[in-house]
Amino acid sequence: MTFLEELQQTSLDLATVVIDLCEKHGIRYYLAEGTMLGAVRHKGFIPWDEDIDLAIPRADYNRLLPILKAELPEGYRLVHYPDATHHPRYFAQVERLNIPVCEDNFVVPFERCMWIDLFPIDGMPKTAIGRKLHLWHLLYLRVTAQLADADECINNKGRHKTIRRLSIVLGNGWAKTFRIDPRKRLAKMEKAAQKYDAAKTGYTISLGSLYKGRTIFPTAYYGEGRECDFEGRRWRLPTECEKMLSSLYGDYMTPPPEDKRIGHNLKPMTAEHIR
Predict the structure, then answer these.
(1) Which of 222, 186, 187 is nearest to 202 (CA)?
(2) What would the DSSP string read from start to end of 187-215?
(3) What are phi and psi of 88, to 5 degrees?
(4) Structure pTM?
(5) pLDDT, tens digit (0-9, with 9 covering 90-100), for 115-159
(6) What is the Cα–Cα distance from 32 to 209, expressed in whole angstroms?
């Protein structure tokens, strides 16, 4: 078994534990983003991807977090910024403690355990201009939180490395000068994200996503969800997942060229990664 296959198996184990708890407690969830794409195009993982993303409506997400704290089996851990000593992410994650990895996309390699992402689905205003203004406000809070922890939040791979490095230097300097606490910034962002009720406004956003404003969808796109096959498991997709995939990826059924097939750049933990 290759290292990628080992990570995929770990992600499956993690998602199975979390989804079983969701189904036990009547919590809605949907396969999201690359996991949604993998389910539709490959009936499982995108072959070069290793993690799993779940999107959870805000009310269910807020119910799920204490359940995970109380009921995760031994060897699994909920990681969420209010409680973690170091977690520069807005959304929660669940880790498998005996699978250490090094995420080497940042200036400072991010040493952690293999994880899955839990993205809250929040509401957005009814009007187009209202959605745009609210999005700008949320992204401002998100960016300032990231700048306060720039070494492990700003991806330094691919194009524009010089701009990214400059952003990191300026961001760290700004955060130190004004004593910015990234956790407080994330808490402020999370409070702002819960301002609108998606069931009443008819629009949603998954703010933890890499795709930011492109995850603004009508609430009805999620709907009741529908079953799909994912690596032999019967999990749930958004009802209108094809419309969502078209918005996120364009021609989503055609795989990208080989040089564009990028995962999280995860590596096994070795002596050189351990501080």
Answers:
(1) 222
(2) HHHHHHHTSS-HHHHSEEE-TTSTTGGGG
(3) -80, 45
(4) 0.89
(5) 999 999 999 999 999 999 999 999 988 887 777 765 555 444 555
(6) 9
